[in-house]
């Protein structure tokens, strides 16, 4: 019996460690010293050498902000928010950098306001909690007789809740799929160097990528303008995204 | 009494009989033909009238000759009958409009006229066609050498203002479609541009129509005034084409009496009452070469945003007396001619200490989309309290006439900061480092290496984190994590399994119920049959009926018994039921108890059968 207990305890510990991730090496202080010395480029390289975490992404965003590169600063703040959507420090600095550079987002729609009420994690966990609770309810009917109308009502409510949570998580996931403009550039009419310009686009603006052609990607910016943007002028919020 | 006697019908018949021979007498005279052309000297835009008079005939067949350079339009005919001193003379006049298409001397050969079976010929007619009264226009550059200009019914001419332009430059151009006069068109597409590297404005569906003479040939001309923009560098050749259905007048025509009118003869679009043949044609212009030059790279101003043309700049600001932090609306108007789509807001020459916001633009066209003024309104905030003026605004463009870039500067606009308000206001925002000012000129500086970095953080940011936090290998949303997917899958499987089992059970239950119902019906039938075999009046009826009724009850009530006792029957059917009574009587008979005289076994038999029939 004790053997079984030990095996289960060790398994849980290993799983927990795996889920939590490995602890970082302790050279963050050196990176922060570079930051405070104004050697932001070296500080960024130092942070990146440690790994990826909300805090490190936040520090990289700060470094770019201090270097006067709001596009990259916005990018790393948004990446930090992907890991910790409710992090108040990240949100504050992101709002600050946007305010400083007049990167005001357009007025939110009803869907924006609805789905922004919760973070992607909260929507996701709600998405998981709903079927778990529903399954528990169904199993309970084996032990305690429920009326058919009760089961039907619970099923309907759970289905609606699941649809809402799924839409919320999907909405945030789509936000993550966007890209950030890294340098002040121009949206072009055609994917060629000497094409006519549709208009200027500031670094730090968010764009949605639709397709690519050569070095260019076809994007829609936050105001709905469409045009071709050089691929090097933008970076996806999720590093693995297109 | 006076009586008026009406002439009899035979009187009128007699009159007709007298008149007809007179007519036939007139017709019997030899017909004569005469042709007249008036005037005998005409200009190319002035038609002449040809009249062919046939004496002593009421109709005739006329074969008009085909003459190069002349078009005959039938104007109809008129008949005349004269009775002079009893002599009847009939004549018919056929009128034609003679439309010359080129100048020169012409001779209309003898025209063959057949009247009353007699072939006749007119005298030949000579006349001269001079050039247009307004003077013959010389062929324009784009028109010379148009293929078959003197024979084809139509051709296109593309006339750009110039043939060497810069990328982004807009030039006016004309597209002219020529149709020979007399050619009638009933379907016409818009000209299409074939070629690349240039953009052309959308063409109007209602182009103006004029008349022109090219190589002494009169044309009706549709003219489109448009604009061409060079978008791709290089030498490009453009052609234009359009589809049309042309009604070409047949030279051999039959006279249509009664509809001769100039109204039908001089309209480009019409085919009424004339003898035309419908011919679909595709009209293509000759190739026109246009070279698009690249904008020079040398001396290109940093503020150049792609504007090509000739522009002027006016700048104003309101209000100019402000409190610290109060926004000022900067109004910048770029006027002139050029590619206004590429004209962007002018920039401040020195944006230091000024915070700018994205400008709003409004374009007012003046007759064409490439001439007018574009007004930009931009909100700015003077963040440096020591500023006393708005620095000059710069706008750069490329002037294709001067072949160089030009930069326009506005005058600085003095502003007044309200000192009283400044005293009451909180401290102005900290002066931003150049690297954080959101303007392009400064942004270009900021991309430098470490030497360009500020020595200390100046933005009011939340400071860097001292704790590295939990490292992750990949940024993934919770729903992309393994444990989340596994748990969700388990739930889905569980829910699916639950409902699957429930549905399966319901189906099974339904099948069993159907099978039971069938078996019970068979058992009921068998039991009733067995009961009918018994004699209800016999003394052993209860004992004999007990077995089939018991078997039926076991099947009906799904009792797990081999046989039933009276107590079992009372339990499942009630003590007052016919089955219970039957079992009690059977027990009495079995144990020697005298059957009561009051027991009516026939009635019991009926009730037992009814019980069996109703039992389910």
Could you please describe the fold and organization of this structure?
The complex is a heterodimer of chains A (242) and B (616). Chain A is α+β, with helices and mostly antiparallel strands. Chain A has three domains: 2-100, Alpha Horseshoe (Serine Threonine Protein Phosphatase 5, Tetratricopeptide repeat); 110-176; 179-236, Roll (SH3 type barrels), CATH 2.30.30. Helix content of chain A is 57%, strand content 14%. Chain A contains nine helices and seven strands; from the N terminus they run αααααααααβββββββ. Chain A has helices at residues 2-20, 28-36, 40-50, 54-66, 70-83, 88-100, 110-115, 120-143, 148-176, and strands at residues 179-181, 185-188, 197-201, 206-213, 216-221, 226-230, 234-236. In chain A, α4 (54-66) runs antiparallel to α5 (70-83) and α8 packs antiparallel against α9 (148-176). The longest helix of chain A is centred in the last third of the chain and has 29 residues, at 148-176. Chain A starts with a helix and ends in a 6-residue tail after the last strand. Chain B has 616 residues and is of the alpha+beta class. Chain B folds into four domains: 9-130, Immunoglobulins (Immunoglobulin-like, Sandwich), CATH 2.60.40.10; 154-291, Immunoglobulin-like (Sandwich); 305-443, Immunoglobulin-like; 512-614. Chain B is 22% helix and 37% strand. In chain B, strands 22, 24, 25, 26, 27, 28, 30 and 31 form an eight-stranded mixed β-sheet that branches. In chain B, strands 12, 14, 15, 19, 20 and 21 form a six-stranded mixed β-sheet that branches. In chain B, strands 11, 13, 16, 17 and 18 form a five-stranded antiparallel β-sheet that branches. In chain B, β8 (112-115) and β9 form a beta hairpin. The longest helix of chain B has 51 residues, at 482-532. Chain B starts with 8 loop residues before the first helix and ends with a helix. Residues 1-5, 20-28, 133-150, 251-273 and 420-458 of chain B have low confidence and may be disordered.
